[in-house]
Each structure stands twice: as structure tokens, then as C-alpha cells.
Amino acid sequence: MPKLMIALLLMVPGLALADADRMTVNGHSVEINDGTQGGKMLFVDGQVMHANGLILLDAALLEVAGVPVVTGISGAGGNVCNAAPFVVVLPDGAAPEFYGPIDSCANLQIVDVQPEAIVFASEPVPSQPGEVWVWNRITGMTEALPEEFAPTEGAGWDQLSDLAEAHPADAMALEPVYQALVSGLGADYPIYAERISGLGSGDLTAEGYLGEACEKYTCEADFAVLYLHKATRQVFAIWHVSGEIENRIYPEDTSLWPPEAMVVLREKAAAGD
Q1: Its pTM surpasses 0.70
Q2: Class of CATH domain 157-271
Q3: What is the pLDDT of residue 10?
Q4: What whole-number distance in Å separates Cα of residue 242 and Cα of residue 135?
Q5: Distances, alpha carbon 267 to alpha carbons 248, 252, 262, in Å
Q6: pLDDT for the residue numbered 246
């Protein structure tokens, strides 16, 4: 559960919380049960309000515009698409209301609970902006302007030690790293950004940081590597495009590459042979 959700847990009168799959709010019963043909079903006051392969309720009860609200996520299951948020409004003495799920595969989380609305957003990455969705009882779920990826203001080489076990997209949040890649890669930057934002991992090394990521369905052919050298404060990149033979690298002058980075460069070249 997101930390913000925990922080916003409200002890609203009328709430009896047994577990994350069953609760009573304002006299309304809310529960998740197994579907008759697999999957899950969301029941409110004994009536099926929603059905899908996966349904989970957030344990935190929110209050928006003076009315208790239960949030959760719903999806088909599997790893093709993230489960999407939904909202159930439970007014005292009135019929429940269901909104969503949001029509998106982004990993949306609650980022703000306002007096009249809830804001959901996904984390922006180098290859694409983060989605932003706003829910209220008047307009329902509406998509707002996306949040573009940008490096963290003031984050530089002194924050290199914070990249222990960090995804390479997180390393690109360092201002000098981001700026070096945008200016150095030029027209190739979007290609590199798409790969470095994919499935991957990274960690600190003896001399800096090394991270690697790839596109989900063509991982062996469409990958990117990011190496940061602590002593010289230089950025080194390797990326490959499906259908090509040679890896693309930055900088192209390999005499500039430190020994630790050269090991990775040779390994990637050998893997493509």
C-alpha cells in the first residue's frame, strides 16, 4: 500500500474493517469474492458492482467531500497490463457509486487526496511522461496533463552513492547524467531512453555505477547500458537496436572509456558475435 494511503487513513464513524477483502462503511457492506467462472467479483450491499480477473481493495478509507470513499485496483491479471484504480463512494443512507477502473496500463498510484478529489499518477520515466488522472463525483475519472520526466533539481555526482540497487532510469534523474546523454546522443536519445526505461536493474560498482535495461518483448535485441565513472564524472552508454549488428556507444572514442567500463563494452560486443 502506498505510504500516502497509510498516512491518510481516517477513522471515519461507521467503519468496521475486518480485512482488505471485507469491510462495512456507513452501513454499506463491501467485499471481494471469487467469481463463478474464475476471477474476482466486487460486491456492495450484496450486489455485484464489478468483476475482473484481479480485484484488490486498499485498506485505507478516505473521505472526499465529506463522504467515505474506498479505493482499489482491478485488472485482468498477468503481467501484460498493470491493474488500474477504481473508486467506490459510500454515502450515508444513499446508493453506492462506482467509478473506473481507469482505462490505462500505467502503474497508477494515489499521489494526492484533495478536499473534493483524488489524484492518481504514474512515475514519469525518460522514455515517456507519467500519466495523471483526477477523480471527483462530478466528472468521474478524467485524464489530466501528463508529467514530463525531468532530472531532480540539484541532484548531481555527489548523489551517486544513492544509486545502490537503483534502476538506470533513476540514475538519469541526476542532472549532469541526463544532460550528458541528451546532448551527447542527439537524435539517438529517444531510442536510448526507450530501452533504458524498460525492464532492468543497476547497482554501484567499485568505480561507479552500472545499470542495464531492455524492451520487454525484445530484450536481447533492444537493450541499453548506463555506466557512470565516479573519478572522472563521465557518462558512458551502450545501446542496441533490433536488426543491427553493432552496438551503438557513447562516447564513440573508446580510448576515453575507463577499464571497468571497457570490460562491459567488450562483454556486450562479444555477446552480439
Answers
A1: yes
A2: alpha beta
A3: 40
A4: 40
A5: 14, 16, 8
A6: 94
pLDDT in tens, 124-152: 999 999 999 999 999 999 999 999 999 99
The pLDDT tens digits of the residues spanning 96-125 come to 999 999 999 999 999 999 999 999 999 999
**Nearest one of 166, 160, 173, 164 to 233, comparing CA atoms:** 160
Which residue, 43, 29, 91, 42, is CA-closest to 66?
Answer: 91
SS3 content of the chain, % helix, strand, coil (to 5): 20, 40, 40
| Domain boundaries of the chain, sorted by first residue | 3-143, 157-271
Strand 67-75 with 84-89, pairing: antiparallel
CA distance 237 to 192: 9
Q: Are strands 16-19 and 97-99 parallel, antiparallel or unpaired?
A: unpaired
**d(Cα 149, Cα 219) in Å, to the nearest integer?**
23
**Rounded CA separation 75/7 (Å):** 25
